[in-house]
Design brief:
Oligomer: heterodimer
Shape of chain B: globular
Radius of gyration of chain A: 36 Å
Largest sheet of chain B: 9 strands, mixed
Distance between the termini of chain B: 42 Å
Number of domains of chain B: 2
CATH superfamily of the domain at 93-103 and 112-168 and 175-371 in chain A: Metal-dependent hydrolases
CATH superfamily of the largest domain in chain B: Metal-dependent hydrolases
Strand content of chain A: 25-35%
Helix content of chain B: 25-40%
Largest sheet of chain A: 8 strands, mixed
Number of helices of chain A: 24
Structural class of chain A: alpha/beta
């Protein structure tokens, strides 16, 4: 028999007395009563628990805890035998009681200015002055969901914008004046611009730049800027710096992106994770940050349709397998973490989710720390909440069992001394036998006995009616509400052996309603009598019977479990369990395309420690891996001068200059296109900003180190580059009729953008120069404002950063060279440069290189005169010429594109090959290390099945830094592995569904393939494979 | 009898000479369509890829009045010296049937970003009655650039909606669309609905799928009834009659396994005589069905990315070989991004398929006879066989490899067409500029 816990239900609960400043209508309420929770197991903190202990509460606070506590007179005692008392949970990622976020109306026109008026900053995504406490209003519905889940206090902030202002510590008390524990507790940030309708930032890299600039602006404002302007946003931002800083992320990589800003600004963020951090634990550890981890583990996907299953990425399936282990991975990496209910659709699932997470290696102590202790400590509030100690708020959970016990139910949640009943009668509370009797009011009436058995069935509860040993019905209808159970019973008379009138009388009874009272029941029975209907009282007993068979619950301690699948880098298809090793490799008997004076020769190649050590006649060391390349061709790796793979965003298109944004900060190292391009012999690429504005963002130069993180993909000590763009994309010719507002709209305007910005940059540089010179003088000049955009432009003027300019028609190419000449600059590379052949002589004189398409044309007006002979003509004029891709597909067969220089214009094969190797290396200033087979250069080497310019050539092995990142044989293995794993996961998910887990749909998220003019985010929900125009 | 000798080795110099001689004339003539061939011509010693899967290493191919009348081995064939007015010594060169670019909007668009030049997509869901032929622009500047890589025949194809319209088959050297037409209305293009649906709510079955299929079926039912007799004219239904009667094709654009299966079932249950799949990403999974139902596949652009991250990285490259190995009729096509201008790369799609296992002559077939069969023009075109049209070209090297694709002569119905184009003219113009410096 199941014990009923009733003691606390009898309680009259008192809240802390009303606030003194408010007038009282009637006698002032007082709260002078002590309450003692006695005979409980009290979990004082994560390490100490007291058996049979008492917690004494007065005016919302704990006044004593321990054994043998003298209870003051008039104390209400609540006996809690067999119960556990914990401090209530604390959630650090909440927007409890914050007003709904107002999103302005979208308009197709450019929206360059802020909507918010007043003495605030320029950008509507910066809400530094937002104080959650000022906007907080108690929300009973939200509060109930938190309280029922076991929370006593939350850190509430408005989840809107990049800078979100302060958070407030709020106890879930209906009186705001009491519940608001701390009005300014924390500072909050994200990369999400939220409700702002202002165009800038339109990309992740824009968000990053905006946040960094805001930090710099605040520094400037604090020292000197406040003399120049009044800016309430910056003033608030300065105030934010005193609080613990929380950064909400939606992906593991964003944690690293945020941490980089934190390092720069001397801020250690506490990260609100997204739940996939387990995929990169080393990197998470290196942030030195603490983490708020969600518990919204994905449900199993019902992938019984194999055609649908094929469309679900492996990483999404694996995430189901791995996500619950996230916290356990943090524990073993010794990274501090707490949990949040944020993201859980049903917060009451939290215990279940905690138990699920714990199975992977968490103890009760870990969970206690993550739900209670650390959240309080992180917001510097452990003095008032977070343990059961004298003086702290009486935020207490009364549970039926220890937290990680499957039977654990939260029965009561006390918040500031106010008791909330949490336990809900669940279906199984009604299982059992009801022995009932009743008597009608006829003088001769005898007591009638009947038994109703309530059991579970697939359609819900059902009732069986037994009387005098006969089963009169097997499937009576049962309805329950919070307190009562009702039956509708249709007796089957055929089953009734005794047909006396007495029996008949009862058989007509069809409706019964009962209320349970601690083992006894009473209620009413409706009886039809002589075409009359009457209610009679009915009483009896209730015996609880556990008839659950579906999900047996085991009390035994389980072994900790691990995910079914292996961790790979990247976490998805074609990932490896570890990065390939640098080996000593002897490639013998190959046709070597050296790209050096020797030309194309027969010979061997030796790779050691990531470098080419010998080319030609080579004697191999004993330990070398030998590759017989007889009949094969070996080249240095292909370098794509113009690529947009492996990026989260390509354009920050909202302003005519976005020099401040950096592609290096938004590298996406898990892009499958990296692997696919390795299979096409590509080893390095310039990841360029798009062409949506005259001055674009800063490039990232990477090697295709598949499996590495973003920073590790970057080429060490590479020069800085920046994208410029000319022509139709810049002047928005093909961006629709609404986009006719942003300057410039003509090529005339484009020119002036450059002059204006470079003049500004020059003056900016001068201001810093003067300032630096004045520092040691008696009257130092005010420190200039650090401007990230100007920094980048100044680097160009100082020849520390180099221009790659998207360009098509000769007039604008000519213009840019004139502009550059006037600034003492040279344009490093014209990219696309489809009319380069018309001004090749001028480009030669200027010193620009040319990186073009082999044969693209006819997609817009400015490429009408594009010709496939362009490369050859420019080559003939002595320019350094490359063919680039700007396209994830073409990039994996750039060798074929190089061959088009042979076809169109008869460039020699040896020179044509340089179009995709040595020449782009030169343009990117990488030719000291890459671009040819030469002793001392990086071992970025490709083994081809055939002449690499031939359509029949297939890259068999691709090395980067001497690591074999692509091998055609291994590829088959990796592919097979992946399908085996998919099968395993599909089976596991089906099993989980059969075991009652709620299935969820695949996300439907699909990544995009970027080109020059692609705006917006990486992910979308439509099947769009092609994006036109370039 | 005169003999061309300059075609034997096509050097830079010869090109320039050629250009210098004809530059002025060409510039004014705007690459005028070639006049009717007055001579009979014999092409000797070329490695001749018949398009049938066979190759003759040292061939003799003769044609008169636009028709091939001789195909044989030059070493064994007996010829009288007077039999042909002209002989082309093509030793070292390759002779191929003119390549065919199906399912393409070549001639229906000139400049992607300029709306005024776009004529391939009509509004509306059910448009079988719109005809690509009459919009086909023989003056398109793109066409000469495509021709000069060996593509001599195309199937201008409308797009958009569920039933996009009726395509045609044209040869690529004509004064106007009437001259160009090989088949005026060769088939109706139907785009199979999407069985799955992606949204922020997740990936799931397309809730409208059944309805969309049903509306196609309803339309076909109406068309069948209409074909058996009607009082009033309905242009949409009228346009379906040739499909129902089996005189023209139904092209179903479908990519996923489920779409292909259901499209073939649609063909079967509606007794459509000639149906082919355009696309067929997943065709390799359903080869038996395709074979059993005589359904050909115009495979999606070989130079594309795999559909899903986990797919074989080479899946687009190996599809042709998989279909060939399974005995499914297939051909290459190029629809997709920058479709019209990119169609000049069609031969290289076949080349890439060869790199990934497709036998060479099968790749040639996939550009010629297989395509012709699907387009129902194989009685006249698609292979070098006696009695067929003299539509073929000579390349100094392997035409499926961009490294060696260099045309020296191309003939359409026996007429020798120019290989010049706006781009080669600009090349010449600027070569001249720099050489004069």
């Amino acid at each position: 028999m199941r014990k009923l816990f009733t003691c606390a239900a009898l309680l009259v609960t008192f809240c802390i007395q009303g606030q003194p400043t408010f007038p009282s209508n009637g006698a002032r309420e007082k709260d002078g009563v002590y309450t003692a929770l006695t005979h409980a197991t009290v979990h004082v903190n994560e390490v100490t628990s007291l058996d049979d202990a008492t917690v004494l509460i007065y005016q919302g606070k704990i006044v004593n805890v321990g054994h043998q506590i003298q209870l003051p007179k008039g104390t209400i005692e609540v006996a809690c035998h067999d119960k556990h008392i914990y401090p209530s949970f604390i959630d650090l990622s909440s927007s409890f009681g914050q007003p709904a976020i107002q999103v302005g109306e979208w308009s197709p026109f450019p929206h360059m200015d802020r909507d918010r008026k007043g003495a605030f900053g320029w950008n509507d995504a910066i809400h530094a002055d937002y104080a959650a406490s000022y906007h907080y209003q108690y929300d009973a519905q939200q509060a109930k969901s938190y309280i029922d889940a076991g929370f006593g206090a939350v850190l509430s902030h408005q989840k809107d914008g990049i800078v979100r202002g302060t958070g407030a510590l709020i106890a879930l008390h209906e009186n705001e004046n009491i519940g608001l524990l701390k009005s300014q507790t924390s500072a909050h940030y994200s990369f999400n611009k939220g409700s702002s309708q202002q165009d800038y930032p339109s990309s992740l890299m824009g968000s990053i730049a905006l946040l960094r600039q805001t930090y710099f602006d605040a520094q400037w404002y604090q020292v000197d800027g406040h003399h120049q302007e009044r800016n309430l946003s910056l003033e608030s931002f300065i105030q934010l710096q005193q609080f613990p800083a929380f950064f909400e992320t939606d992906d593991k990589w964003n944690v690293l992106r945020a941490d980089k800003i934190g390092d720069e600004m001397n801020v250690q963020y506490i990260f609100k994770g997204s739940g996939n951090e387990y995929q990169r634990m080393d990197e998470m550890k290196n942030t030195k940050g603490s983490f708020i981890l969600p518990l919204n583990f994905p449900g199993p996907m019902d992938l019984i349709d194999p055609l649908l299953a094929r469309q679900v990425p492996l990483e999404e399936m694996r995430h189901w397998d791995w996500a619950p282990s996230n916290a356990a991975q943090f524990k073993s990496a010794q990274i501090p973490f707490v949990f949040t209910a944020d993201g859980l659709e049903d917060k009451s699932q939290i215990l279940k989710q905690l138990q699920k997470a714990a199975k992977y290696g968490l103890t009760e102590q870990d969970v206690f720390a993550a739900m209670i202790t650390r959240p309080a400590q992180w917001i510097k509030s452990y003095d008032i909440i977070g343990s059961i100690e004298k003086g702290k708020y009486a935020n207490l959970l009364i549970t039926t069992a220890p937290l990680l016990d499957h039977h654990c139910q939260i029965e009561y949640n006390w918040v500031m001394g106010q008791s909330h009943e949490v336990k809900k009668e669940t279906k199984n509370e009604w299982w059992g036998t009801y022995d009932l009797s009743w008597k009608n009011d006829a003088p001769s009436a005898t007591e009638i006995h009947l038994t109703i058995e309530v059991t579970d069935s697939p359609k819900g509860l059902t009732a069986k009616w037994i009387q005098d040993g006969d089963t009169l019905t097997n499937d009576g209808t049962v309805k329950t509400d919070d307190a009562r159970i009702s039956f509708q019973l249709k007796p089957d008379l055929k089953n009734k052996k005794d047909s006396t009138a007495k029996a008949q009388q009862t058989i007509e009874a069809e409706y019964i309603t009962l209320q349970k009272n601690n083992g006894t029941v009473d209620g009413w029975i409706l009886v039809f009598q002589n075409q009359d209907q009457r209610n009679f009282p009915i009483t009896g007993t209730f015996t609880w019977v556990d008839n659950s068979t579906a999900h047996p619950v085991s009390d035994e301690a389980e072994e900790w479990i691990t995910p079914h699948t292996e961790m790979t880098y990247p976490f998805g298809a074609y990932g490896r369990t570890e990065i390939p090793k640098q080996e000593t490799v002897w490639i013998k008997n190959a046709t070597l395309w050296t790209n050096e004076a020797e030309g194309i020769i027969q010979g061997d190649l030796l790779i050691q420690q990531g470098k080419i050590v010998q080319v030609g006649k080579v004697s191999a060391p004993a330990n070398a891996v030998v590759i017989d390349a007889t009949g094969k061709h070996v080249t240095s790796g292909i370098i794509d001068e113009h690529s947009h793979i492996a990026l989260m965003s390509v354009n920050e298109h909202t302003q005519s200059s976005s020099a401040e944004v950096e592609e290096a900060r938004v590298i996406w190292p898990e892009d499958i296109d990296i692997y696919r391009q390795l299979a096409g012999g590509v080893t390095a690429a310039q990841l360029l900003h798009g062409s949506a504005n005259a001055i674009g963002g800063q490039s990232a130069l990477v090697k295709l180190r598949w499996g590495a993180n973003a920073d590790a993909m970057r080429i060490e000590n590479a020069d800085g580059f920046i994208k410029f763009a000319l022509g139709e994309n810049v002047k928005q010719s093909n961006a629709g009729d609404f986009n006719s507002v942003r300057f410039p709209q003509t090529r005339m305007g484009v020119e002036q953008v450059y002059y204006d910005h470079f003049h500004q940059a020059r003056e900016y540089g001068l201001a810093w120069k003067n300032y630096n010179a004045s520092i040691k003088s008696k009257n130092p000049l005010p420190k200039p404002r650090k401007d990230l955009e100007m920094d980048a432009l100044l680097e160009i003027l100082e020849k520390k950063r180099f221009i790659t300019c998207h360009s098509y028609v000769q007039s604008e190419i000519n213009m840019l060279m004139h502009m550059a000449d006037s600034m003492g600059l040279s344009i490093n590379t014209f990219t696309h440069i489809l009319e380069g052949y018309k001004v090749a002589d001028k480009m030669k004189a200027h010193g620009a290189a040319a990186s073009t398409f082999s044969d693209w044309w006819a997609y817009k007006m400015e490429v009408r005169d594009a010709i496939p002979y362009n490369g050859a003509l420019m080559h003939q004029q002595g320019l350094v010429v490359a063919f680039n891709s700007d396209d994830a597909e073409m990039a994996r067969r750039l060798n074929q594109e190089a061959a088009k220089a042979v076809k169109y214009g008869h460039v020699s094969e040896e020179e044509a090959w340089k179009f995709v190797t040595l020449n782009p290396a030169k343009m990117l200033h990488l030719d000291q290390h890459m671009g040819s087979l030469k002793s001392g250069k990086d071992a970025d080497v490709v083994i081809w099945s055939n002449n690499p310019l031939s359509v029949y050539a297939v890259a068999e092995k691709t090395f980067v830094d001497g690591r074999c990142y692509f091998d055609r044989e291994e590829d088959l293995f990796l592919h097979q592995e992946q399908w085996n794993e998919r099968k395993l996961l599909m089976d596991q998910m089906q099993q989980a569904i059969a075991n009652g887990d709620h299935p969820q749909k695949p996300s439907g998220r699909k990544r995009r393939h970027f080109h020059c003019d692609s705006d917006g985010d990486l992910y979308q929900f439509q099947d769009v494979d092609h994006e036109n125009h370039h | 009898m005169e003999t061309y000798t300059n075609s034997k080795t096509l050097t830079m110099k010869t090109i320039i000479n050629f250009i210098c001689i004809f530059a002025a004339a060409v510039a004014t003539a705007q690459y005028a369509p070639a006049p009717k061939q007055s001579k009979s011509i014999l092409i000797l010693h070329a490695t001749t890829h018949l398009g049938t899967g066979e190759v003759i290493e040292n061939a003799a191919v003769g044609f008169k009045n636009g028709k091939i009348e001789l195909v044989g081995d030059a070493r064994t064939i007996k010829l009288s010296a007077q039999a042909y007015d002209q002989t082309i010594d093509a030793a070292g060169q390759h002779l191929y049937p003119g390549f065919i670019a199906p399912a393409i909007h070549l001639g229906l668009i000139e400049m992607e970003a300029v709306r005024a030049t776009s004529d391939y997509m009509e509004v509306g869901e059910i448009n079988p009655h719109i005809r690509s032929l009459i919009a086909f622009n023989t003056e398109s500047e793109i066409i000469p650039t495509v021709r000069s890589n060996g593509i001599l025949i195309a199937q201008p194809t409308p797009q958009g909606g569920a039933i996009s319209g009726t395509s045609c088959v044209v040869q690529l050297d004509a004064w106007n669309w009437e001259d160009a037409a090989i088949r005026s209305e060769d088939g109706v293009h139907l785009h199979w609905p999407q069985p799955y649906h992606r949204s922020a709510g997740g990936l799931e079955n397309n809730p409208q799928y059944a309805d969309e299929k049903k509306s196609l079926q309803n339309f076909l039912d109406k068309a069948k009834a209409y074909a058996s007799g009607h009082n009033e004219t309905d242009p949409r239904l009228e346009a379906m009659i040739p499909v129902i009667n089996g005189t023209s094709n139904l092209y179903i654009h479908a990519n996923s396994e489920r779409q292909i299966i259901e499209a073939v079932q649609f063909k079967k249950s509606n007794h459509i005589a000639h149906m082919h799949i355009v696309g067929g990403n997943d065709a390799a999974y359903v080869t038996q069905l395709l074979k059993d139902e005589n359904v050909g596949v115009m495979i999606p652009r070989v130079h594309r990315l795999p559909q899903n991250a986990g797919d074989e990285i080479d899946a687009p490259f190996t599809l042709a070989q998989q279909l060939h190995a399974a005995g499914v009729l297939f051909c290459f096509q190029n629809s997709g991004d920058m479709e019209a201008m990119n169609s000049r790369n069609l031969p290289f799609l076949a080349g890439t398929a060869v790199a990934f296992g497709l036998p060479y002559e099968e790749a040639v077939k996939g550009l010629t006879l297989n395509t012709a069969k699907m387009l129902q023009i194989d009685q006249q075109y698609g292979s070098i066989e006696v009695g067929k049209s003299a539509t073929f070209f000579l390349s100094s090297g392997d035409a499926l490899d961009m490294r060696t694709n260099q045309l020296s002569h191309a003939f359409i119905d026996g007429r020798e067409i120019t290989l010049r184009n706006r781009q080669s003219d600009l090349y010449e113009k600027y070569q001249k500029k720099y050489s004069e410096k």
